[in-house]
């Protein structure tokens, strides 16, 4: 019998395998679990070349899998985005923005692209345009808040060319002053296209920088214990051009997230042709266990997209929705492609179900793993219709970020089961969980788990009563085994079980015994994908050999702030050392600070102009 590559022992393994729910050790060989049992049994398998990790009594969970993550698009942009995810005060967020503006060279922008809500801030508000102009008078700043608005400073308005004569976009508004000049506030009413089209005008990273960016985004996800995701496509994400980076990383063996991707139509009124072209050139499930095709969506036709801006009235889908959707669904069923469909409101879901049921009459949907995304206001009747057709529902924690707006418009009573996750499960529908990151919500999976368990928004508002919340194990299954149906990978991952992929994580606290208030703050101290350690911290930092090359470009916010909650800036001294020693890729060191540019940039100095201050002292940190 061959010996394992790695053994982890003296742990508290929550396997989620109902036939073997707990273990203290696992053995891994060739990327899969070869033994899941007690220490005495597993340690007997060790050979001379087996690596052994003592878990010292720590809890171990299956790796988390996000059912709806815009990881490809997010990866292309991560290194040039300033993340306000998890930042608890507007004062801190604006300090980050000022610091980033000081080191961002022209013509680049400072971008804060979603993942946060004004309600998470102690001040309970967004910055004003005047505050943005004061913080960054010369550097363009673009801030995307959920799906509802974007804030641009004066420099950004000049960069995009919006002026008095710029026409109003369909489904959106360019807010103007009394003289008709744009103020810098863009509103989705309710269509977010004006927000995304404006963002798309900014400079993009070169290909090699996008490779670096994607690796650092995956690294950030690994830091939370994420080992897999289903990519939901996205606007302005074209196939196959924008998939070249992730394909390169897959070909070179550098993926640290298992990724199944859906194809998102890009052309209004040309959706059927998109899918005719793609079904003739792509095959469902083509790829590997790390990067594989997963069907169509989340956009199938633009006429069926009901953006969930709860600050405005629910949009009615146009009368042509059914006919256009039917044409696309018939193409997909004929080619045995599953699909996912963005649908926030039951009014949209019920109309889509009319189409699916009609197609099913002469082209059965049996065996196709199709599903709705989001489904915040889905009715009992629609849940039953989905179950009867063999479909699923992928929910995300958007209400954790937009719950206050929903309550304001529809009332706390309506919010108590929005979406009705427990009822979906009780009715036997296939249901799983994810984030819809990176724009409308954060990529932090523990915020989602906290929301499922506590029913609270990130600001602490209790919107879901206890009777509609999930217990911790059920919530965990929503993030692990349940997701595998949605990528047609049941039995291959989602458990710590013999024969399944060796994907697991060791959280920095015991998920099952920590207080509810702590769940959202969880990170991983050890993440393993396919038997390879892709992230290590704390007790397991010495095992981490997977740090990607330094973030590119050298002014990247990822170098200074890291990611969620500005962990690199606000963490212990070890984080600062990581920034200086690992994340500096500039060609020249500074005579004052060496390569520790992050320390110089983050120092408290008596000026807002870091460049001129440090330059006057002979410091070259401002120039890297």
From TrEMBL:
Residues 52-535 form the Amidohydrolase domain. It comes from the Bacteria. CDD domains: YtcJ_like. InterPro entries: Amidohydro_3, Metal-dep_hydrolase_composite, Metal_Hydrolase, YtcJ-like. Pfam families: Amidohydro_3 (PF07969). This is Amidohydrolase.
């Amino acid at each position: 019998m061959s010996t394992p590559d790695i053994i982890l022992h003296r742990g508290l393994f929550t396997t989620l395998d109902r036939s073997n729910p707990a273990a203290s050790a696992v053995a891994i060989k060739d990327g899969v679990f070869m033994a899941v049992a007690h220490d005495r049994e597993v340690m007997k398998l060790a050979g001379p070349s087996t690596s052994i990790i003592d878990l010292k009594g720590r809890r171990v969970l299956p790796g988390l899998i996000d059912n709806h993550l815009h990881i490809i698009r997010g990866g292309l942009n991560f290194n040039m985005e300033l993340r306000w995810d998890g930042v608890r005060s507007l004062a801190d967020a604006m300090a980050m923005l000022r610091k980033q503006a000081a080191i961002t060279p022209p013509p680049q922008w400072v971008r804060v692209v979603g993942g946060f809500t004004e309600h998470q801030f102690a001040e309970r508000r967004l910055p004003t345009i005047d505050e943005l102009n004061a913080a960054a008078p010369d550097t363009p700043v673009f801030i995307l808040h959920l799906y509802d608005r974007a804030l641009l400073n004066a420099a950004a308005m000049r960069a995009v060319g919006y002026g008095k004569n710029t026409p109003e976009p369909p489904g959106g508004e360019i807010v103007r002053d009394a003289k008709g000049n744009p103020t810098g506030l863009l509103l989705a009413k309710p269509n977010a296209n004006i927000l995304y089209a404006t963002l798309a005008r900014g400079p993009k990273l070169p290909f090699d920088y996008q490779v670096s960016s994607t690796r650092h985004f995956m690294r950030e996800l690994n830091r939370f214990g994420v080992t897999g995701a289903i990519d939901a496509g996205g606007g302005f994400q074209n196939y196959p051009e924008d998939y070249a980076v992730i394909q390169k990383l897959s070909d070179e063996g550098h993926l640290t997230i298992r990724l199944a991707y859906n194809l998102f139509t890009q052309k209004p009124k040309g959706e059927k042709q998109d899918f005719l072209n793609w079904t003739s050139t792509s095959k469902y499930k083509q790829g590997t266990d790390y990067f594989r095709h997963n069907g169509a969506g989340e956009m199938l036709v633009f006429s069926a997209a009901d953006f969930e801006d709860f600050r405005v009235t629910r949009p009615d889908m146009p009368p042509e929705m059914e006919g256009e959707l039917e044409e696309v669904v018939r193409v997909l069923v004929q080619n045995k492609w599953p699909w996912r469909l963005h649908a926030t409101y039951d009014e949209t879901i019920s109309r889509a179900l009319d189409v699916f049921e009609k197609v099913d009459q002469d082209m059965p949907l049996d065996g196709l793993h199709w599903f709705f995304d989001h489904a915040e206001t889905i009715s009992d009747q629609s849940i039953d219709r989905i179950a009867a057709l063999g479909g699923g529902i992928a929910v995300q924690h958007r209400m954790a970020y937009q719950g206050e707006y929903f309550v304001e418009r529809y009332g706390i009573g309506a919010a108590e089961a929005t979406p009705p996750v427990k009822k979906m499960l009780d009715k036997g529908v296939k249901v799983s969980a994810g984030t819809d990151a990176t724009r409308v919500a954060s990529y932090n999976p523990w915020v989602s788990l906290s929301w499922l368990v506590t029913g609270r928004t990130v600001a602490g508002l209790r919107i879901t009563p206890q009777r509609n919340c999930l217990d911790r194990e059920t919530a965990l299954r929503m993030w692990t085994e349940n997701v595998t149906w949605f990528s047609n990978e049941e039995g291959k991952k989602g458990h710590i079980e013999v024969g399944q992929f060796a994907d697991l994580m060791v959280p920095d606290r015991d998920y099952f015994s920590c207080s509810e208030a702590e769940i959202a703050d969880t990170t991983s101290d050890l993440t393993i994908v396919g038997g390879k350690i892709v992230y290590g911290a704390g007790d397991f930092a010495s095992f981490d050999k997977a740090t990607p090359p330094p973030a590119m470009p050298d002014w990247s916010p990822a170098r200074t702030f890291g990611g969620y909650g500005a962990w690199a800036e606000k963490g212990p001294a070890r984080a600062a050392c990581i920034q200086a020693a690992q994340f500096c890729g500039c060609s020249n060191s500074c005579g004052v600070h060496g390569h520790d540019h992050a320390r110089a940039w983050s120092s408290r100095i008596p000026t807002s102009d870091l460049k001129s201050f440090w330059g006057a002292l002979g410091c070259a940190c401002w120039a890297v």
